[in-house]
Amino acid sequence: MASTIISSSPVTNSDRSKRRKKKKSAAAAAAAQQFKQAEGSSSHARWRTESQQQIYSSKLIQALSQVQLNPSSPSAPCRGRAVREAADRALAVSARGRSRWSRAILTSRIKLKFRKQQRRHQIKQQQRIVSAAGGGGGGISRARKPRVSVLRLRGKSLPAVQRKVRLLGRLVPGCKKEPLPVILEEATDYIAALEMQVRAMTALADLLSGSNQASAGSSG
């Protein structure tokens, strides 16, 4: 009888330890979820503060001062693209890499440089092949048929909700292949940051237009 009691006691102790571990892990997961929600709500509210707008404005002015516009081709699209990229980089720096979209913006510039280098290397290789083949005298160039991507065909067959989620994931940087909860969290923070960006750029534009008018009035 005593042997049966002794043999059954380790089983009960192991069960109790497992239950305690499960309770601890559940409590830790709940605390982490609450902390994440509180951090997300605080980050969303942070973009609406005046101090954050001033921080972004100073970083925006620094980024715009480093923009180098080519005087030989002063086209409006090139200037607009350069200003937009500088404004987005300043916004990502203001986020301090805490969000997925800010990290995606900061790393996209490095990836773009790497792609340009790869393209140049491929063009040089193609030119070498053409020159080695003697310019392809008498060769007939065949028109390539347009290829239909399998992903496009799959995208057309998806339900409307999934198509909208995929579109939202493409609009938010770094969320192209993320699940819906991550996309919604990142989109909420990204929209709040963009609203602050619009306010800061509007205030900066008003300030510059007012200084230009004042200088024109003093010269006149």
From TrEMBL:
Keyword Nuclease (UniProt): no
Subcellular location: Nucleus
One GO MF term: protein dimerization activity
Composition bias type Polar residues, residue spans: 1-14, 39-51
One GO biological process term: regulation of DNA-templated transcription
Keyword tags: Nucleus, Transcription, Transcription regulation
PANTHER family attached to this UniProt entry: TRANSCRIPTION FACTOR BHLH148, TRANSCRIPTION FACTOR IBH1-LIKE 1
Protein name: IBH1-like N-terminal domain-containing protein
Organism of origin: Linum tenue
